[in-house]
Amino acid sequence: MKTFRAIIADDEEILRTGITSLLKRLWPSLEICGQAENGTQALLMIQSQKPDIAFLDIKMPGMTGVEVAKNVLGQTKIVFITAYDQFAVEAFESEAVDYVLKPVTKLRLKKSIDRLKKQLALKDQKQTPDHTIKKIIQVLENRTAPEYLRVIKVKTGTELRFVPISEIIYFKAEDKYTIVETAKNEFLITTPIKDLEKRLDPEHFWRIHRSAIVNIEKIKKITRSFTNQMLVNFHDTDDTIPVSRSFEHLFRQI
Fold first, then answer.
1. Which of 16, 20, 227, 254 could staple 222 via S-S, CB 3.0–4.6 A?
2. Where are the domains of the chain?
3. How far is residue 215's CA from residue 252's CA, in Å, rounded to a whole number?
């Protein structure tokens, strides 16, 4: 049986590590032959290693995943790592191009792996036609960035305050409200966590529990409790947020 090989390209080390860990669990026979932290490295790695699959983050410094894909058409199967919304996802689905959404979860990656295995198992293996990849690239290049929340509106007494999204440490569901935690204040809003998740930039805000979303730029360190549960510790607050087991892969290098 042929052993398939893959590279992973993402400028965030924590994401590369998380995807690598998940792939090892979900596809043990897949050989990860390299990791790249930017598009230029990814292109050189594809040309030298000649992997069967390249997992490419769409947004990378120097050369984007889309630009890398343009340069390797027909050389390897492309799996885009994307934070784009349903508009782009529908384009992927309609053209049978593989993708995984950020933050990468076990369920989403498993779906992509199943597709890849079916395609690679074909006796007459063929790469996705160049014109198909080109169509997806065109969609991605023409797609404007999603409009994510820049401020959160909160009521304090008779006042309506606008809290910059960059100041928020975490969101946490509690009873009928959602706590909005900053370094200086704690606010309550009525927007559910599941609705907030759709409107927050997944490059900066990760859901780590069914009741919590954290700003990864505010994370100080990851620790373990005496029961071995993973805990997120922050700058500017002594609060900790537990990580659900299903989201631990996001911090798998810990």
1. 254
2. 5-142, 151-251
3. 18
What is d(CA 214, CA 216) in angstroms, rounded to the nearest whole number? 6
Dihedral angle at the C-alpha atoms of 86, 92, 98, 101, nearest 10 degrees? -10
Per the DSSP assignment, residues forming a β-bridge with 152 are 163
Structure confidence by residue, pLDDT tens digits, 160-186: 899 999 999 999 999 889 999 999 999
Alpha-carbon distance 151 to 162, whole Å?
Answer: 6
Residue 181 token pair: 């935690």
CATH architecture for the domain at 151-251: Beta Barrel (2.40)
Instruction: Please tell me the chain's helix, strand, coil percentages from 3-state DSSP, rounded to the nearest 5.
Output: 35, 30, 35
Structure tokens at 62: 């120097």
Is this structure's pTM higher than 0.70?
Answer: no
Q: Write out the two tokens for 57.
A: 């983050």
Q: Which CATH architecture has domain 5-142?
A: 3-Layer(aba) Sandwich (3.40)
